[in-house]
Specification:
The protein has a two-stranded antiparallel sheet with strand order 1-2. It has a two-stranded antiparallel sheet with strand order 3-4. It has 12 helices and 4 strands, in the order H-E-H-H-E-H-H-H-H-H-H-E-E-H-H-H. With 280 residues, it is mainly α. 65% of the residues lie in helices and 6% in strands. A hairpin with a 2-residue loop joins strand 3 (189-194) and strand 4.
């Protein structure tokens, strides 16, 4: 099917039924059909499978899907916490109680000012506790995963991010080269060709959005804490000609390519640096 819910997928897996998922955009036979019904779509998918041209999407094993779900849930909780903090600042400003850094100690002294501040204070404590509980489970999953520990050696990447990135990438051996991985992340530019002319456009953004989010979050930290790394130097070298936006995308693509090599060779970031220095 083009889309399978987690519950359906688990049910079929428990029955040992082989499951294949079609790439909706690549299954042109369906997209370009004049008459579209679920029954006809299913028949066309079967026809594609029979002749061996069904464009498949990789289905991660259940263990990977479960850890992905855990990491994404933590992201969900952090988003809620951010909204709560923003609302607290709004309520404090309304009461002429401006403060830049929120602390429990400060909120304790002003929580009785309004019912909104009191409830938001309680919500903040509760959501922080839930995040701590989830992070404890994430730490356990991290300690069991070899690839996460390798990615964690990159300056600017945390345990949580390294585990999430590992789960989003899945089996590194399913990518023939680093370009395949960057394409999976949607970080490669669109290519246009007309006659003998060829040019590149913006990145596709058709890949894994979580990988792009991770790289976007981590690159700035990496450049700040490791200004002399090859990724940081590469980023800075592109700014004068490409501008910060394009330089950032190119640096994210390079960072992901470096991570690809690290996972394939099972080496740390420092070992990667030594490896490229020996090659020069």
């Amino acid at each position: 099917a083009g889309s399978v819910s987690e519950r359906t997928l688990r049910y079929l897996e428990d029955l040992n039924v082989p499951v294949k998922m079609a790439h909706p955009k690549k299954a042109r036979l369906i997209a370009e059909a004049t008459i579209k019904t679920d029954e006809l779509d299913a028949k066309r998918l079967i026809d594609l499978e029979k002749v061996g041209v069904l464009p498949e999407v990789w289905i991660p094993p259940r263990e990977i899907r479960d850890v992905r779900h855990l990491c994404r849930y933590r992201y969900f909780l952090v988003q809620i916490r951010t909204r709560i903090k923003n609302r607290i600042h709004f309520e404090l400003d309304r009461e002429d109680l401006n403060v830049k850094n929120l602390t429990y100690k400060y909120l304790e002294t002003v929580r009785d000012r309004t019912i909104m501040i009191d409830q938001l204070y309680r919500l903040l404590r509760e959501i922080n506790e839930k995040i701590r509980q989830v992070e404890k489970e994430i730490d356990n999953k991290y300690s069991e995963n070899e690839y996460s520990k390798i990615i964690d050696t990159v300056p600017g990447i945390s345990k949580y991010v390294s585990l999430l990135l590992t789960m989003e990438i899945g089996d590194i051996n399913r990518f023939m080269n680093s370009k395949k991985l960057t394409s999976y992340a949607g970080l490669v530019p669109r290519e246009y060709q007309s006659g003998t002319k060829e040019w590149k456009g913006h990145i596709t953004k058709e890949g894994n959005k979580w990988i792009r989010w991770i790289l976007d979050e981590c690159l700035a930290i990496h450049i700040n804490v490791s200004p002399d790394s090859p990724i940081s130097i590469y980023y800075k070298s592109l700014i004068p000609t490409k501008g910060k936006g394009k330089a950032k995308i190119a640096a994210e693509r390079k960072l992901l390519s470096v991570i690809y090599i690290m996972l394939k060779e099972k080496i740390t970031f420092d070992q990667y640096i030594k490896m490229i220095k020996r090659a020069i």
